[in-house]
Amino acid sequence: MADFQTPQMKEFPIIPDLQNDATSHLSPFIAKPNHNEDIGFPGELVDNWEEKAIDKMGDLLGKYRSLRVYLDSCVKCGACTDKCHYFQGTYDPKNMPVARQDLLRSVYRRYFTFAGKFFAKLGMPGIVGAREMNREVLDEWYSYFHQCSQCRRCSVFCPYGIDTAEISMAAREIMDSIGHGQKYCNEILGKLQKIGNNLGLPEKALKATLAEFEEEIEDETGVEVRIPIDEQGADVLLITPSADFFAEPHIDGLMGYAKVFHAAGVKWTLSTYASEAANFSMFIGSYSNMKVVAERIRKAAIDLGVKRIIVGECGHAWRVAYSFWNTTAGIGSGADENDVYAQQLQKQLDHSYPIPQHICEFTNDLIEKGELNLDKSRNDHRVVTFHDSCNVARGSRMGTTPGGQFDIPREVIKACCNNYVDMEPETIREKTYCCGGGGGLLTDDLMEIRVKGALPRMEALKSVVDEHKVTNLAAICAICKAQFAKVLPYYGFPMDMITSTHQLVKDAIILPGEGEGNDDDQEENED
């Protein structure tokens, strides 16, 4: 366990006295020069960085009208102040959404508003909340904009809809542009662009791993279930987070996908070239890097000749797929008519299906059609609750009706389990609390803020554990699963409580031919 105090869980939320600069000491590791340069940023802090940071801010203000609106709109009403999980876990006032916004807003006012420029000439910029761009401000940005998971919960409660996540992304993009980027995100993006996945897992290792999973399924069921990769002419390309190839509970979810495809008789494949759904470019606000990663997926889809693209259990990856793949890579409506490859893919894909489609929607469609044989009693040893992941809940949709991103995963779980209970209404669905590790914070150098930021979700979980004997916390996000596996023990819960939603499907599904031959085996043993 790290050297800090885990917050005490409370039955009801209590906001105590503020603790100024309580987490000012928390900052992620700075990216090494090659981490920055590999993804198109200066290797180290550039000369005249103050001026270049302001130039970059001006560029973003011209490019994204919403950013200027958010910086101009706040009336300091206070509706957001206690809505951030990091504020609730640290009591640091700079973790209030409005205060976090003001870190960027104060510099914006100094250089991009008449009042800021006027009072700066009089030596009184602070009278209008304006600040000069200097090293103290940069250090404050680097610390507190990496204590924001970009979960967007505060925007739900803001009467003007101000999106702190977009402000956080802008601040990180500015810092990257002057060579002051974060090691965790930038290093991972470099691996992804070179190798095809966040883990840096090469083709041979990936194929060997999948072969082991196939053996495990066959040992369990007696049925040969393939997990195909680079399968030319498959109908479906599955794009899933590389965590699904690596560790529990993620791998159980992958085996669940494989069982679903097998039971449905669908020809599908993974890709070694694009073996990653995650796209950390969103966390650092880099549209150009987001496009590079998305185009790998487009190339894989074209090369393999698939008709459909389905996305595995990953929260921010689904938001990127749902909201950005169309404009970055031509996957979905809105493809650039001048982009030859985007138009080629549009002609290739089957438009009678959603483009792209979430694995939960795919599975739920099969369940509704009665095409999966599910035995709910196989999960009777579990009492399950569900964690709505932020980027799914507040950054995307699923299915054909509003709220599908909330209802569809729950319908899948309920089809597989007899014992399901939701957490308190104010902690789920569009008001869900973040796991505490999203937005590029899933790194050990930020473990303190990750643990403290998980407090509201842990309190909601404790309530259903105490009242309903909940044993499993299901999720559809790779980051959430990895975060909870680390954080649950800090709050006295077992780490294996976190469960892939498709792990529940995996355990409930009865495959065609499963169990056949067991009677003969039993007779042989009796002889």
Automatic annotation (TrEMBL):
Iron-sulfur as UniProt keyword: yes
Top-level lineage group: Bacteria
Isomerase listed as a keyword: no
The entry's keywords: 4Fe-4S, Electron transport, Iron, Iron-sulfur, Metal-binding, Transport
Cross-referenced InterPro entries: 4Fe4S_Fe-S-bd, 4Fe4S_Fe_S_CS, Helical_ferredxn
Any one GO molecular function term: metal ion binding
Domain 4Fe-4S ferredoxin-type: 65-94
NCBIfam families tied to this protein: DsrK
Stored PANTHER family: FUMARATE REDUCTASE IRON-SULFUR SUBUNIT, HETERODISULFIDE REDUCTASE
Name of protein: Reductase
Organism: Solemya pervernicosa gill symbiont
Origin organism lineage: Bacteria, Pseudomonadati, Pseudomonadota, Gammaproteobacteria, sulfur-oxidizing symbionts
